[in-house]
Amino acid sequence: MGQLFAQYPIFAAFGLTIVLAIFGAIGALVIGTIVAILRVSPVGVFQRAGTFYVDIVRNTPLTLIMIAANIVMIVNLGFSFSEDIARDNIIWAIIALSVYHAAFVCESLRSGVNTVPVGQAEAARSIGLTFGQSLREVILPQAFRGAITPLGNTLIALIKNTTVATAIGVAEIAGLMKQMQEFNNNLILPIFLIVAIGFVILTLPVGLLTTYLSNRLAVKR
Amino acid sequence: MSTSVLFDAPGPRARARHRTLTLVGGVVILAFLAFMLWKLGEKGNLAADMWTPFLTSEIWVYYLIPGLIKTLEAAALSIVLAGIFGLVFGMGRLSQNGAIRWVSTVVVEFFRSVPVLVMMIAAFSLYAFNNVFTSELNPFFAVVTGLTLYNGSVVAELIRSGVGSLPKGQAEAGLSIGLTRGQTLRAIQLPQAVTAMLPALVSQLVVILKDTALGQIITYPELLTTYSQIGSYKGNIVPSMIVIAIIFIVINYALTRLAAFVERRLRSRGRTTIAGVGAGEDTLAVAETTAPDDTEAPTR
Q: Which of A76, A131, A199 shows the shortest C-beta gap to B6?
């Protein structure tokens, strides 16, 4: 057991998993918020563009998006960020994770918008705020607070989904586990347990924090 | 939908502004699409002979349809097994016996927090090393194992929140006519809970179907895997990925619509439903949040 940790870069691989999760989460939050604003905007084209994005992305397997990021974007179209292939794959893995989870962030925010009572929007309009102002000052702050639980669940899903990056050769923990199990046939279950417990350690605090925050921050009505 | 209350019925100035925005937005979207098409075309992906293979029966009969069947096989078996797993551990979490409840909780929470891919790879290594199945069936059962353990745990949680969402009077009525707790659960609460969670279950099918594509990583020859076979045979790797994506999207979109339909149907009959999600990822995401005033949760 001990020699596994000495022989394989387990902590480095988990570190890369965390890097993918953090940048993926930031990207997903930014894109997801934009798409959510498009979906609730008064302009028909924007609404349809937002809906189209969510319908397409949500129904495509992440594995496909991940592989397409590599095969289509890097290899075929040559959208490359870095000379270093490994680095390029990491960047595109983060983009794929962001694009995929943005659809779920958007839906979480929309469900958050739905928890805001009609009276809030009406009050905002009646004091003369424009759509953008009422969204910024009244609706979205409450929507984010109402959407904490689904957002937290999306973050947990994102942390787990970073493993899919192994499909394009990113050296994160799932790929390392496969490698470790191939060369240590007698330790397949212990290796699985190490990785599994690592993910429990990563996701459990997020779940606890979400529950705490949603109780703490939810707008009491 | 509460979104419509975010803005007033537009007046003349707002309408003019919306027209401008529509124009600008339309131009931006079209420009983006045109740019992507141009880039794709620049690398020769739009040439006719890249796409004509998909008009021949050969590609469909030897690649796409067998791949789709493999995908559906793994998904179908996983759904059945996940249902059984979920029923067992869902009832375990509602058990009177503290030990059973504790074990079920640990099992469900554990398999929910481990990535499906990690379970698939571990199962694959385990089966391959111990020669549990033939070398052809090992990847298949590894995919099914991963999907069953994760989605079974999700179903268990759905059952628990489904039973929890029922009015208390249901259980009280069962107990007062002399049924035991177990009988009340089986004969009165579970049937209603399963109906209530039907939309969420259909949405979960989308998750299962999408996750079969993870089988690509452990060499299960499902639909996604065929992109490289078709690509190396016809030299049209990008078009084949696009076609495969469309197949996935069409099937999953139909399932999402079905979930929304089932939900509307149940609701119009006055049944309560849990988790009117339609969100594919973690059906529980909304199941757990269904706030009291959230009955109008977005289904689409």
A: A131
**A residues 163-202 near B, CB within 8 Å?**
163-164, 166-167, 173-174, 177-178, 181-182, 185, 188-189, 191-192, 195-196, 199-200
Can you name the CATH fold of A2-217? Answer: MetI-like fold (1.10.3720)
Do B298 and A40 make contact, defined as CB atoms within 8 angstroms? no
Rounded to a whole number of angstroms, the distance from the CA of A84 to the nearest CA of chain B is 22
Which sequence spans correspond to the domains of chain B?
Answer: 54-287
Q: What six digits make up the tokens of A76?
A: 């075929």
**Structural contact between residues A190 and A5, judged by C-beta atoms closer than 8 angstroms:** no
Chain A residue with minimum CA distance to B37 = A77
CA angle B11, B14, B20 (to 5 degrees): 140
A43, A153, A173 ranked by CB distance to B282: nearest? A153
Residue among B3, B116, B289 whose CB faces A40 most closely: B3
Give A-chain residues touching B232 at CB under 8 angstroms. Answer: none
pTM of the model: 0.89
Q: What are the domain boundaries of chain A?
A: 2-217
Q: Which residues from B are below 8 Å from A154, CB to CB? A: 281-282, 285
CA distance A92 to A84: 12
Residue of A nearest to B205 (CA): A59
Burial per residue of B89-124, b for 16 or more beta-carbon CB atoms within 10 angstroms, e otherwise: bbbbbbbeeeeeeeebeebbbebbbbbbbbbbbbbb
Question: Per CATH, the architecture of B54-287 is what?
Answer: Orthogonal Bundle (1.10)
CB pairs under 8 A between A and B: 210
Between CA A173 and CA A182, with CA A177 as vertex, the angle to 5 degrees is: 155
Report d(CA A177, CA B139) in Å as an integer. Answer: 16
- Please report residues of B whose CB lies closer than 8 A to that of A53: none
Q: Reduce the DSSP state of residue B175 to 3 states and report it.
A: helix
- Residue by residue, pLDDT tens for chain B (300 residues) are 444 567 777 888 888 988 999 999 999 999 999 999 999 998 888 888 889 889 989 899 999 999 999 999 999 999 999 999 999 999 999 988 999 999 999 999 999 999 999 999 999 999 999 888 888 899 999 999 999 999 999 999 999 988 988 888 999 999 999 999 889 999 999 999 988 888 888 889 999 999 999 999 999 999 999 998 998 888 889 999 999 999 999 999 999 999 989 988 888 887 777 654 433 344 443 333 333 333 333 333
